[in-house]
């Protein structure tokens, strides 16, 4: 027996004993793990496979790990997701441990230092305006923020009012007048003109550490947006009656980037429009304090491949190659109908930061290093080659095509690791040649089970039109699956829209039943009254367990059910439109009743929207692990961990992170709670280290040099609760 297998068996025994003693109340507990290996079909590793994907992204600079070097945060409108990337050894790497330490943003996130302390603060959307978070990070606390303003205000003569922004816009936050404090450009509430909110902190207070906005002009640059094209009208007024366009013709959405393109000391403007593919460059022929747009250029830039995204480009000015000058990062800003794979265009700056010259480099920055399946990812475990290891099949809403349509497919990743350490390699990005199917069906959601009783798993695929496609597996016993199309409407089932099926025996009679999630957020149940060789599905209910994932007032819930068993007891985890994954019990013997909601935030609230989940024990430690999809098109991996007697550590979101892991020396950080005590338990169940902290610690370090290599459990008591984490010391 190998040493690793012995360790796994011993650890499972220890965890079983500990679970019997401490975990009577907790059903599952998870910890995010981004160390699992994924490789492409050429056997090359993805450098950061588990980012969760990218669709509609802006980028901001911030020092996340407080090492004095600017890192990046990519903010995606798909689910309002923040993806932290730290600069490490000459490249950006995904650093999930910082996700929970960032404030939750909405619609947009701008990273700017508004108080001149050298630390990037955060501006985001809130109720028709702006919310501001102040960066109060220090070596003692790590990355940390506090609310500075719930509603950013400006002086509109004669009164002070909240600054208005629509959710789809991207504002520009820059020092527009060159006085050292941060100003704001944003489209006005009624018109097609840009408002200039000048920060008067330096002028009135002789300092730059605050925000004191005053509406300087409602027509920065003296231009208006045209209504029928993406051009602008120069020398035009925003007066309600004197201007070319009445202000009631509100523009639908625009992105702004203020940047000095020619080194003349005033800011020019890059403008993206919600209905157009290209960006417009607006040249400021005025001054820093009195802007006047004198020329426009589109498409832009003219010296290299011009920006040409499917719709609504938005630009960010950040240093991508860390050469000391900022580069251009361009991505779609509108949800739906946008490029979702070649969706981050990178232009390197071959000029200077004060006078940039951009050259196009690539269309898939960071995307190519990640697992990204276009729009909407729907992972499901299966064993396609019957080797006893769980493989992953990932469906999607679709890859965006140049003609404006979507192409849904299934990707297959084979588990080429072991039962103790899963590793995945791409076999095909188009399982069963689904991309060749005719019709308008999207959102392919796979499930696997033996439909015909021949001993292998067949495949059902739910689709956006409510139907279920059936593919029979014609492979011989022990062979790789061969899925052959049978029918586009399995057993005449059509639930209307967005069928998300699961084959599972919910009533314990030995026959697979069919469970189907739906757009409205309820679950449909079809009971199998047939035989193992002949499945006969009878409709029972479209409100199984009274589960409803739609929030009040929202007609869409996009339920994605995942029934599973633990210790012989049935449970349900269900993804949703709002991203929350809920856990239900009370299923066995209660199929006609209401299931019991145990937890509505099993994996927290930072994993995006339109979530899906699939579970299996990938490392033979006795815990179910989870792979989660979301609408940004990527996946996340959550490792099952020891369930303490308090509650699911992920759902409590205590902000405890252990990193790097595996590692000999680890850091234990707490986002917003003090670490009071810690104990380390070895694989034999012995407590080998106990520490107490009385100095309000939020960051501690553990050196494993004095401990044997292997697996350990770290139990942490913080001021907000307790959690248990797995540590691999190597």
SSE topology:
Layout: H1 3-22, E1 30-32, E2 37-39, E3 57-62, E4 71-76, E5 81-88, E6 91-94, E7 109-112, E8 121-126, E9 129-135, E10 145-149, E11 153-156, E12 159-162, E13 172-174, E14 183-187, E15 194-199, H2 201-205, E16 213-217, E17 223-225, E18 232-234, E19 254-259, E20 268-273, E21 279-284, E22 293-297, E23 313-318, E24 327-332, E25 345-349, E26 358-362, E27 375-382, E28 391-400, E29 406-407, E30 410-415, E31 423-428, E32 445-449, E33 458-462, E34 468-473, E35 483-487, E36 500-504, E37 513-517, E38 523-528, E39 537-541, E40 560-566, E41 569-575, E42 582-585, E43 596-599, E44 612-616, E45 625-629, E46 635-640, H3 649-652, E47 656-659, E48 665-670, E49 675-681, E50 687-697, E51 699-703, E52 710-718, E53 721-729
Parallel strand pairs: 2-31, 11-16
Antiparallel strand pairs: 1-46, 3-4, 4-5, 5-6, 7-8, 8-9, 9-10, 11-12, 13-14, 14-15, 15-16, 17-18, 19-20, 20-21, 21-22, 23-24, 24-25, 25-26, 27-28, 28-29, 28-30, 30-31, 32-33, 33-34, 34-35, 36-37, 37-38, 38-39, 40-41, 41-42, 42-43, 44-45, 45-46, 47-48, 48-51, 49-50, 49-52, 52-53
Descriptive notes:
- The protein has 730 residues and is mostly beta strands.
- Helices cover 4% and strands 40% of the residues.
- It contains 3 helices and 53 strands.
- The strands form 13 sheets. Strands 2, 27, 28, 29, 30 and 31 form a 6-stranded mixed β-sheet that branches. Strands 12-11-16-15-14-13 form a 6-stranded mixed β-sheet.
- A hairpin with a 5-residue loop joins strand 28 and strand 29.
- 49% of the residues are buried.
């Amino acid at each position: 027996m190998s040493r690793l297998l012995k360790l796994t068996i011993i650890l499972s025994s220890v965890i079983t004993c500990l679970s019997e003693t401490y975990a009577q109340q907790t059903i599952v507990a998870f910890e995010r793990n981004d160390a699992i290996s994924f490789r492409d079909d050429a056997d090359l590793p993805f450098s950061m496979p588990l980012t969760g994907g990218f669709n509609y992204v802006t980028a901001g600079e911030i020092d996340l790990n407080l090492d004095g070097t600017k890192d990046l945060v990519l903010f995606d409108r798909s689910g309002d997701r923040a993806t932290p990337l730290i600069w490490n050894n000459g490249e950006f790497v995904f650093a999930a441990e910082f996700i929970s330490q960032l404030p939750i943003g909405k619609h947009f996130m701008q990273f700017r230092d508004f108080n001149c302390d050298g630390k990037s603060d955060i501006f985001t959307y809130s109720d028709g305006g702006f919310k501001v978070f102040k960066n109060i990070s220090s070596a003692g606390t790590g990355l940390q923020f506090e609310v500075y303003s719930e509603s950013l205000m400006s002086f509109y003569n004669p009164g002070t009012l909240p600054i208005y922004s629509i959710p789809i816009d991207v504002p520009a936050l820059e020092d527009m007048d060159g006085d050292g404090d941060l100003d704001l450009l944003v489209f006005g509430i009624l018109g097609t003109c840009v408002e200039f909110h000048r920060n008067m902190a330096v002028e009135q207070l002789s300092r730059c550490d605050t925000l004191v906005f005053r509406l300087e002009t409602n027509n920065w640059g003296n231009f208006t947006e045209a209504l029928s094209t993406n051009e602008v009208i120069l020398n035009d007024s925003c007066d309600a009656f004197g201007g070319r366009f009445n202000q009631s013709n509100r523009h639908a959405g625009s992105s702004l980037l203020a940047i000095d393109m020619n080194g003349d000391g005033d800011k020019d403007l890059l403008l993206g429009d919600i209905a157009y593919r290209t960006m417009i460059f607006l040249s400021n022929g005025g001054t820093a304090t009195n802007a006047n747009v004198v020329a426009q250029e589109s498409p832009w830039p003219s010296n290299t491949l011009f920006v040409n995204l499917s719709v609504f480009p938005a630009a960010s000015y950040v240093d991508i190659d860390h050469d000391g000058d900022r580069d251009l990062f361009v991505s779609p800003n509108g949800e739906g109908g946008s490029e979702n794979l070649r969706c981050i265009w990178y232009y390197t700056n071959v000029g200077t930061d004060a006078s940039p010259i951009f050259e196009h480099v690539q269309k898939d920055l960071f995307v190519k290093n990640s697992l990204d399946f276009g729009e909407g990812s729907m992972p499901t475990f299966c064993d396609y080659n019957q080797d006893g290891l769980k493989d992953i099949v990932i469906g999607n809403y679709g890859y965006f095509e140049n003609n404006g349509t979507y192409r849904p497919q299934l990707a297959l990743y084979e588990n080429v690791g072991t039962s103790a350490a899963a590793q995945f390699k791409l076999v095909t990005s188009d399982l069963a040649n689904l991309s060749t199917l005719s019709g308008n069906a999207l959102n392919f959601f796979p499930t696997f089970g033996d439909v015909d009783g021949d001993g292998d798993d067949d495949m059902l695929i739910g689709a956006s039109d409510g139907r279920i496609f059936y593919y029979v597996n014609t492979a011989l016993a022990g062979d790789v699956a061969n899925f052959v199309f049978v029918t586009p409407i399995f057993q005449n089932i059509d639930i209307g829209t967005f069928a998300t099926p699961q084959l599972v025996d919910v009533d314990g009679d030995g026959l697979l039943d069919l469970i189907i999630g739906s757009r409205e957020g309820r679950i449909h149940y079809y009971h199998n009254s047939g035989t193992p060789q002949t499945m006969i599905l009878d409709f029972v209910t479209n409100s199984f367990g009274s589960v409803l994932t739609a929030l009040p007032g929202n007609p869409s819930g996009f339920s994605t059910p995942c029934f599973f068993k633990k210790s012989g007891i049935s449970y349900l985890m269900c993804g949703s439109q709002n991203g929350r994954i809920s856990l239900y019990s009370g299923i066995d013997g209660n199929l006609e009743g209401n299931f019991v909601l145990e937890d509505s935030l099993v994996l927290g609230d930072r994993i995006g929207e339109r979530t899906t989940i699939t579970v299996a024990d990938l490392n033979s430690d006795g815990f179910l692990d989870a792979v989660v999809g979301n609408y940004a098109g990527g996946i996340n991996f959550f490792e099952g961990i020891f369930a303490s007697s308090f509650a699911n550590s992920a759902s409590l979101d205590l902000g405890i992170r252990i990193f790097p892991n595996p590692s000999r020396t680890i850091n234990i950080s707490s986002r917003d709670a003090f670490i009071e005590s810690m104990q380390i338990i070895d694989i034999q169940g012995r407590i080998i280290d106990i520490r107490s902290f009385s100095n309000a610690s939020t960051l501690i370090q553990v050196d494993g040099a004095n401990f044997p290599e292997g697996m350990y459990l770290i139990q942490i008591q913080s001021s907000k609760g307790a959690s248990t984490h797995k540590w691999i010391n190597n």
